Every structure is written in structure tokens, then in C-alpha cells.
Predict the 3D structure of the following.
Amino acid sequence: MEHKDRIYQSDLGEIKKVYQDTKDWAEVLSRAVHSDCDISQEAFIDYVEEVYKTKVKDVKHLQKLTGITHLSGSDGKEAKTEAEAQRFAIKELEEIILACKYSKYSTALRDAIESGAKYKDLLAIKPADYGLPEKWSGHASTDQYSTVLFVISTQFLIYEPQRHRIAPDLRSIADELEAPYSVILEAKIMYDI
């Protein structure tokens, strides 16, 4: 968690600085928000909410707050029309909102594991409580079950090639989490790099 906190604080500081220097959210998005990092996108949404003292409800609300209604590019493509620039903005902002929710949900799972939660406790943490739909895309996991497996895998270094030297064996992980061994084995198979 310390690593996540450092990244979050660093990105939040960069976001604040660019916004305070420019007062332009589109500039913040292009210069300080890393599209490949959920933590960075979480920091962006958190700072928008801090500045306007409100919770971002949806993409239209985020557009109203930030004034970002057009983006000149997306996924390496350049907008050729105004309508395309509007679509790029909506798509980008929707992805940022989803990334923020996903980051908060996966962080809650990580925090729970670090606090001694068992497998049944992890299943009680619902994506809907973080504003996520039943299924989503664009991340290593796409629903509650696969996210629980992903977080277990990362927390216990199941994916590490040399894990036997630095992490407990799979049976010990299953025992610690009071999880079926098959769940831990599936986490290894699903997220083995």
C-alpha cells in the first residue's frame, strides 16, 4: 500500500500544480493524468471533487465541472471533426471515472487483506458499493470474482516466477484466507505472467 500511496500523492501533487498554474482541466488531463494508471485517474477525480466540493456523478457531471467537452485526440487518433472531438472527450472521461472506481474497489480489497480479511470477507466487498457495474472492461479484471482473484494474486505475489523464495505456498495462502484451494489455484492460473 505504501507504493500506491506514494504514486497517488505524487500524481495528486502534479495534478494540483498543473491546475493551479493553468486553471485548465484539459491541460491537467494532458500533462498530469496518466491514462495507463488507475491511481493517477483516481487522483484526478478526487482533486476535481475536492475543488468543487462535490462527488462526480457521471460523465456529464464531470464535463460540467471541468469544462472538458472536446478532446483533440484519443488512443493515438486525432479528431477530424467537432463531433469526433466530443466523442473522444466522453470516452476519455468515462474511462477515467471507471478507473477511479476500479482503483478504489481494488484498494478496498487490498486493505481488507492487509487487515486480515478472509475470502468470505473479500466477497462481501461489492463493486456496486464503489459505483462499478456488474461487469466492466479495460482492466486486468472485469468483475467482482476476477478482481478478488487478481488482488489475491498481487497481494500474495502468486504471479512471481521466484515466488517460492519470497511468498508462502498456495496451500498456506488458501489456509490464511480460509479460501478453497481451487480459488487460489485459479488466481495463479488466471494471473500467472
